[in-house]
Amino acid sequence: MLYNIFIDPFVQMVQMPDLLVQTLWEGLVSGVLYALIALGFVLIFKASGVFNFAQGIMVVFSALTLVGFYEKFSAAGFSGHAAAFVALILTAGVMFVLAMLVERVVLRPLVNQPDIILFMATFGITYVLIGLGEMVFGGDPKQMITSELFLPSGSVDVEMLGGLVSFQKIDIAAAIIASAMIVGLALFFQKTRIGRALRAVADSHKAALSVGISLNQIWVIVWFAAGLVALVTGIMWGARSDVSFALEIVALKALPVLVLGGLTSVPGAIVGGLIIGIGEKLGEFYWGPLLGGGIESWFAYAIALLFLLYRPQGLFGDKIIERI
Amino acid sequence: MFYRETGQFKQSYAADQAVFPILQDRLGLAAILLVAFVVVPLFGNEFLLASVMVPFLILSLGAIGLNILVGYTGLLSLGSAAFMGVGAYAAYKLSTIFPGVNILVWILCSGFFAAGIGVLFGLPSLRIKGFYLAVATLAAQFFLQWCFVRISWLYNDNPSGAIEVPARTLFGLAITGPSATPVTRYLVVLVIVVVMTLLASNIVHGRIGRTWMAVRDMDIAAQLMGIRLLPAKLLAFAVSSFYCGVSGALMVFLWLGAAEPSAFDIKLSFLLLFMVIIGGLGSMIGSFFGAALIHILPIVIRGLPEALGLPIAAATVEHLTYLIVGALIIFFLIVEPHGLARLWQIAKQKLRVWPFPY
Predict the structure, then answer these.
(1) Closest Cβ–Cβ partner in A120, A127, A263 for B325
(2) Which residues contact B70 (CB under 8 A, 6 or more apart)?
(3) Which of A125, B8, B27, B258 is the most buried (most CB within 10 A)?
(4) A320 located within any domain
């Protein structure tokens, strides 16, 4: 038994390195996508202190909106790449309107309330978005418009380490786009005027207000940025499987990623995503059969819990200083 | 006008510190109990008893359990449904292994199993706080739910993977299983819920409750005042899980009749959290308000189009329900972030000083 748990999986890893590479790659890709969802959380948490539970549903909602617009266009005889990109821009517009509404209707009246109340309010947003999305777009899974957005499909098989490792092209594209987006966000945060304002708000709401930064404006920008991240995430997830409300449960996986990396850290979200993604796939592949399979559903949380016991504020989170 | 303490003189400290110091409050409570025990079973139809009142009471009990943890001790938990599941599965196993013992004994005993598991998953709470703890409790939620699916011993290797409630009797009356009438089930649930609410009310108003509230308001300060954090927090986890466990056992035995592991999924955890927050954190009556709102509101919304004769498809109604419930959650939070219990308090205060504003 002990042999099966502690030694056998590693022996297998060494014996079949190609399988290991394949598993690692799959873990890496799902890790990148978890990291993208977590990134949306972190953006909002940093700037407004709101633990935005609705990020997961925003991913689904944006993807559904995109596909919905495209379907409307192609029904009107306007299809192809141009239509897809018009739909993309319109969806971004919808996310902007959503950000404004959230700020206006939910955040502004609830300013200065305890964290848990704001957390609950984002549950309300989640419910509204689920109801709205299902009513407008229907509950059936939809096909993401991958080829219209110039996203590749198919796979590349690489012969390495005495075996065949297959990489899905869409996964490679997802990894590249995600990295580009993370670099873009980092530049936006560090080099632009708005980025500087965002960092100021993240440090202290009051100090930011006192130097003339409009909190309301910043919140709209942040929710819009999170909406765009959600849109990209939605496209990537949608391209790998269908676009449906089942994604919602996947979004819950972003929570362990988030606490693992620390709620306030952008690099933390990425590192956390990779750790959870890879750990989960390795656990499922090598240790799962011992426990009867399906451990993917809770393994991520167990990893996060272990890390938290060691560092209660997450790997990159700000140290929690408590005063009386 | 009628609701004020004028002329009610207290002659002892005990009377002054009573939970309900005002006579009208006590009368109101007695009236509610009278309605619940006599009027509802006599005049309620089957739908009201079986689909509205029984679930409402059971969910209230679960909400009280969660409220002890979140509202009184300040430990955010998203795993309450899993603890309900532990209670349900424990009651099922116990009642099938020892069929001779009365089922009510096992329903109450199942709470202790839930409490044990709760303490185990509460251990990290000493180190982890806030939202980080919420995610730690999610580990409990998903791990326990996985156990309910994978460990076939828990459901006696039933091929469908569900637990089915055996028929059991109390004083010759069937209280569980298909032959139990809604009235008996309602009364059994009502008695358990009333007794356990009373118990919880006494716990939170006593020394233990004050310890919990001190921990909630600031745990370091509480520690400096001589409260040992680990026992206090673990006790909160134990009591909370006990209530959730009993509520879960009741849910399967007296409401659903059979349950699959998916009955205890994350949605139920969120639902309980809604009830606690909408009802009012740190309030017994708030747990009932929250359960009433969250459970009964969708039933009303679903029934409304039919009652009004509006031709709306069932699917649309379902989506509208989501939309309206979500909007109402936001609305209630904006109107009164401290929950319905606070609204109730404000209303009572206004009545007390009427016709003056204060």
Answers:
(1) A127
(2) A116, B76, B77, B273, B276, B277, B281
(3) A125
(4) no
